[in-house]
UniProtKB/TrEMBL annotation:
It comes from Streptomyces mexicanus. SUPFAM superfamilies: Glyoxalase/Bleomycin resistance protein/Dihydroxybiphenyl dioxygenase. Residues 14-128, 144-257 form the VOC domain. It comes from the Bacteria. Coiled coil: none annotated. This is VOC family protein.
Amino acid sequence: MTHPPRPPIARLRALRSVELLTPHFAEATDFYEEVWGLEVVEAEHSASWLRGTGEEHHALQLTRADRIGLGRLAFAVATPAEIDEAARRLQARGITPVTGPGPLDQVGGGYGLRFHDIDGRLIELSAETWAVAARGRDAAVPVGVTHAVLNTPDIDASVAFYRDVLGMRVSDWSEHQMAFLRCNTDHHCIAFNQAPWVSLNHVAYEMSSVDHFMRGLGRLRHHGITPQWGPGRHGPGNNTFSYFTDPTGLVCEYTSEVAQVVEDTWICKVWRRTPELSDVWGTAGPPSKLIRAHMAGTPDGSPVAWPLDAEGVPA
Ligand SMILES: [Fe+2]
């Protein structure tokens, strides 16, 4: 007897925020506010919360820790009732939430739940978080987070989990190396990268337009910071990119103009991994050894960052 496919646990609306763990908490908070263009909305001894110009209370939570990496990914769900239903559907799949469902005891509030994905990452679903008024979009600063790329040792298992359990759809593959998944019209809010271990590859911040994107690069240049890879435009997703490393050694990206998917007409394809398709403008060149090392990261759960050599590459 075959069972009908189980529905995903919820309909995710967007990647709401990302929590990063950092032993360099003060430097990281300064970087994301003074340089990157976010704004601290709340700060205490062990954590800070930073917003973009969008309506999310915060896009980024930095948490003081003795290891580096991803703390959690938070996704928006429409209603508390959907959170409760998600909890029931998780339980039916044998996954017990580690928090909730219920009011979240955290800055930014909300009603939600948290559970671990197939690789042990902490995932939060939330509804009714505190609303903040969107800011004007004139400044060349991020609107908010728009995607995270995650390293995984089993890309097929990770994609299957995010597709079947979280209800994401696969927009494109980059050979059998990367998979791009969406939860709304943006081409991707999550991408997986086949890798030796589970870690964070990078977090991308949305700039309102390619003009904001370029002016943002100019603003960073005034801080003496130039891209470690970029500027350029990717083939899959068609988004612009420029990658940097934050004081923790985690990779952050300015991006804009990601492809918009029209459901039912979009055809998922497998892109070849060629220089012309990863850098369609031809402006970025290949990624350096340094940025590739930072994108590989250290395995989640490592107690400390790896020792770095003179060039900042993990030894
Ligand atoms: Fe990216």
